[in-house]
Amino acid sequence: MLLRPVRDTEEDAEAVRRLAEASFAVFESNPGTATVMNPPAVRPAPGQPARSRERVRHLARTDPGGGWIATDTGGRPVGAAQSLVREGTWGLALLAVLPEAQGKGVGTALLGRTVQYGRACLRGIVCCSPHPVAARAYRKAGFDVHPVMRLDGSVDPGRLAAPDGPVVVGSAAQRDMMDSVDRRLRGGAHGVDHTFMLRHHRLFVVDEFTGSGYCYLREDGRVELLAATSRRLATRLLTAALLSLPEGGRASLRDVTAEQQWAVDVGLAAGLELSTGGYLCLRGMRPPSPYIPSAGFL
């Protein structure tokens, strides 16, 4: 096995995308056979490989020392990892190993390189899949393991109370506000990652005298990231985001920790089904709240 950095090229971006997609496919069909330690999102929808490659290249540019590809003796990629550092907060955005490479130290080596990249950071965060190997690996690496929930289903707007105040469509003009909220909740701003998310997701914001917050919503109805300075504003943002979906539209919330009961309440009121869904692994920090992390940007 050889390790090399992920380069900012279409070739490497496609290699990482294919690795993640292949690992997802096997994990979904038989969770006991594939190692997908922290998938960056649900498996990409058909017609969106370009976005997946763009995300890989975004991280290769911002964090060239945080991404690695593992190859076998023939040069074929068998595993990949990408991590990022944002103002003293380290995050693991992807760690995937093909099933045939399991048990050969590939995942351990990739994790070691990414953890080393964040060695100077006080805080660390990983959205971890339910795979038992994943939780064990992150706990062994010094992370606290927090079980998380997920909510999925079709939104019934008639069951949701109207938001208790205004929510507006956001833009790059709110970058400073969003970075300020990030620092308050997770110790580091998302910074350049907001630029990527603004290109691909709808943004809802609240910014008033009593507090601030924002919510990114994907076109498939998944909440990509939500952060606010109070549970009241978080509830308002999530309600507005769900109500923006078309009638009968499906919604999804992932990586919801026990501290986010406000999100559970809104999701259940909207008719979503609650289930368990992996772990949020943290080092040097408590679960941010009110907060729903982005699996790809933490």
From TrEMBL:
Regions annotated as coiled coil: none
Pfam families: Acetyltransf_1
Positions of the N-acetyltransferase domain: 1-162
Gene3D superfamilies: 3.40.630.30
PROSITE patterns on file: GNAT (PS51186)
InterPro entries: Acyl_CoA_acyltransferase, GNAT_dom
Taxonomy, superkingdom: Bacteria
The protein's name: GNAT family N-acetyltransferase
Lineage, uppermost ranks: Bacteria, Bacillati, Actinomycetota, Actinomycetes, Kitasatosporales
